[in-house]
Design a protein that fits this description.
single chain; 371 residues; mainly alpha; 12 helices; 0% strand; elongated
């Protein structure tokens, strides 16, 4: 009988070690830190508690910010570099536009007024019909895009915070549910439940890393296995917490489904292509309106400044839209919320190690030394 118990304990330890390594593989790679981690220690005979260290959140956040520093710098530099380039390149752009326009037009006459007569004819149509239509369309699409994407980020932040709170409550509830367990099956179930919860937190971090290449499956998570485990061990564990634990698991499942739905809800590439085309059309209309030799000669600096402002506005809008489209990069990021999951996951890893140590304890269960 003693050999059987030892075999079961060794088998449980091996399975837990393999599962921990597999769960660790879900996480994105992060730069190494020299932060000192607290070890898990049992504070009661069968109750392991390791509260998340809030001091590690800022260090984790620094690591996450470092990973996207190049992307952030590019977004900040675009509204500065693009207008400067436009200021320098405007004379060449205007000259190239006029040359292409003349080549395409292939007029059988020679202009003697520098294009003044043509511009006078085009101005009512350009200013009265074309430019208002382009401006209203562009402004409406940009406002809708920014408002929708920003609300998506706020909803994701709320859902992540709710998931974090539910995981913390579930962690405490699982410890309380299996506290005082006297059978090896209950102890093994306690360790498996902690491992499943740690794997779920690792999955949340992976899904919130912004580098998920494949589509995320909603049913593919550890919550189903955790709920099944709680149902199987209902007879061995305290029944007081069973309903609350199942309710917490259901809440986590709902929050995760809503979060993944928000992550999958974004604009297609054609939406941004339309925005780019409208902006390019406005720039083209500006070049058409200012295509006058007299105007180019007398007001070249003013035209260059206006072209610079136009390009600066469009590049700034493009940077904001690109930034806000990714919830986990840029100035509008929600990375500070994701960073809170890292110390919680490390605490759960400590819980798993503590419960695994209890399974490997030669003096447990009580009286085993006399078997």
């Amino acid at each position: 009988m003693s050999r059987t118990l030892r075999r079961r304990r060794r088998r449980a330890v091996v399975l837990l070690s393999i599962a921990v390594r597999q769960a660790t593989g879900l996480l994105p790679s992060l730069p190494l830190r020299s932060t000192t981690r607290q070890r898990a220690t049992p504070v009661a005979d069968d109750f392991c508690v390791l509260p998340p260290d809030d001091a590690d959140i800022s260090a984790t956040l620094d690591d996450l910010l470092t990973e996207t520093r190049g992307f952030d710098l590019a977004l900040r530099a675009a509204p500065i570099v693009a207008p400067g380039f436009a200021f320098i390149a405007y004379p060449y752009v205007a000259a190239a536009f006029r040359a292409v326009f003349e080549l395409v037009k292939n007029a059988p006459y020679v202009e003697v007024d520098g294009g003044q007569y043509e511009i006078n004819i085009l101005t009512p149509t350009l200013i009265g019909i074309v430019m208002p239509s382009l401006s209203i369309s562009f402004g409406t699409l940009v406002a809708t895009t920014v408002n929708t994407l920003r609300q998506r980020q706020l909803d994701l932040r709320v859902l992540l915070n709710q998931e974090l709170s539910a995981v913390q409550l579930l962690r405490v509830g699982l410890d309380a549910n299996f506290r005082g367990a006297t059978t090896m099956n209950a102890r093994e179930a306690d360790a498996r439940a902690a491992l499943l919860l740690e794997g779920y937190v690792a999955r949340v971090i992976q899904e919130s890393s912004g580098r998920t290449e494949e589509s995320v499956s909603v049913p593919n998570n550890e919550l189903g296995a955790l709920s099944s485990l709680l149902s199987e061990t209902a007879a061995d564990a305290s029944s007081t917490y069973q309903n609350n634990l199942h309710a917490l698991v259901a809440t986590l499942s709902e929050r995760r489904s809503a979060r993944l739905a928000h992550l999958a809800t974004t604009y297609p590439a054609v939406h941004y292509a339309v925005l780019t085309a409208i902006a390019a059309s406005i720039v083209l209309a500006y070049l058409v309106e200012t295509d006058q030799e007299v105007l180019q000669f007398l007001s070249s600096l003013q035209l260059r400044l206006l072209f610079t402002i136009l390009i600066g506005v469009f590049s700034g809008v493009g940077s904001v839209v690109t930034d806000i489209a990714d919830p986990f990069r840029g100035a509008y990021r929600i990375t500070s919320t994701v960073a809170q999951f890292f110390p919680l996951r490390e605490a759960l890893i400590g819980d798993v190690a503590c419960k695994r140590a209890a399974l490997d304890d030669g003096e447990w269960p009580p009286g085993s030394e006399h078997i």
